[in-house]
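Mods, move this if it's the wrong board.
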Amino acid sequence: MYDRILVPTDGSDVSAAAEQAAIAFARASGSEIVALAVGQPQPPIASAEAAMAIDPGVDDEILLTRATGYARRVADAAAAAGVRCSEVAMLDYAPADAILATAASRNCDLIFMGSHGRRGLSRLLAGSVTQKVLADATVPVLVMRPRPAHKA
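Not the wrong board. Structure tokens:
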């Protein structure tokens, strides 16, 4: 049904649940996975006084190392399940655009991702990577929402 599934991850618990479901889905359908982690750097801000020089490269190195670890986690879990997986880690100011570009460049025919389930003002202020991917994707997108907490 699907040959190559893009699985974006940000290392969160919601992403981890989507990763596991994507691996099970890929195993059942004989698909391979492309694990993608995108570190989102902070845009440079110029200081009016220019009194302090900040090297954004230091933060970028940390973000890329973290993204590489997230992609590796998916690849390791996929390998343990017998699913072929390639890893992609990158930095991009617009993670949704990076997801869409990777899906196109890697010939993915499905994007399988988690949603953080933001609502109200936090959704408006923070925006939604998932929402942008859903709006602009040219391939199907399967979104896993977080499970609601059980009330005692």
